[in-house]
Amino acid sequence: MKQQITKLVPQLRRFAFALTGSADDADDLLQNTIERLLRQAPDAQDEDLTKWAFRVCKNLWIDEYRSRKVRSQAAANPELSANQAVDGERAMQGEIALQQVNSAMAQLPDEQRSIISLIALEGLSYKEAAAALELPIGTVMSRLARARVALSEFLKNSQEEANA
Amino acid sequence: MKITDEKLSAFLDAELPEAEMEEIRAQIASDDSISARLAELTMVDESIRGVYSEIDNKPLPSAIRKMLEESPVQQNNNVVQMSGWKKAVHKTNAFLSQHAAQAASVALLAGFLVAQIMPQNVSDSPLAQQNGYWAQQANILETVPSGQTETLYDGSSVQARLTFKDPKNRICRQFQLNNTNGMTSENIACREQGEWHKVATFYSGQNDINEYQTASGGSPLLNATLDKMIHSQIYDRQAEEQMIQQNWSE
Fold it and tell me: Residue B144's pLDDT band (boundaries 50, 70, 90)?
């Protein structure tokens, strides 16, 4: 089981980052997800475990992290960490991009944020994402499109504001 | 067919029936507004991937690594293969001799094998293949022999370092990615059904990893994983070039 979960860690971690918008929160969420998986995961095939893992991660995010929003406040006011200070300018650019995308993602309903993270970031098929989130494929397809359009508008506007 | 955002979005993911995919391709070719709209939606995915994939470059917290640590890996006949591949590397690829130098400590370090195995799929969508970050790396693996450094569009550089066959008889390549933040990762990707899939990533030059580094500076996790993965053949430069010419078919 640990071995199966280990294989999923990079995917789950990026998913958690896309949901929380903060690397520290993402690792907290990842840790709680793994704890839950180790405690509760059924003896499942890899495919089932993947769906289950994403679902657990998303539910924990909705239950705990969305309500707490403690660290995400910090993400809105980023301070350079020691690592990032190595290349200040580039790190700043990375932070600005993160803030921009976080602000855009924050506009989305939870379900849309989960869907676009699974598909655009993790490369899941619509069928896989539908199974992970327990939604019909048609719903995944339409919500994904709405999420992409909303994000595109938001990013375009913030880019225009930045250039103004 | 009216091309809605929903259709374009599904086109981007290659999730439409082929007839509709074809129709949209035709309309993209003839209608600039549709191709511009598609580009806007593609940029969304690029932004999300660009920003949130950055966490791959941050070492996994040790608390999480410990949760997932297994008891030390049993050594089996891999040990024999290990010495074999290291000899082959040493002989055939001078630029890789640093790996051969790391041999001694590998067996001891197998217990730290919390490899970050990541089954990633190169998206089937044509645009994603052109634009995707991974697609660019996959293209380098497909076309460039080991030891030659190539630059990605964002300035990151990729160098394939070793080509071998794994126990499933897949051709796999180890490669180094130096991203523009100064982070370095060693990766392993294997070729299946004509596509490269990344199966493992290891970070180096960071504190979490440094504590386990061998004297020559390589990641023991990488070496331990290579020991488990390298099954038989190591490709020398000539064999690599031949495989590239043959599009990796044998």
Answer: very high
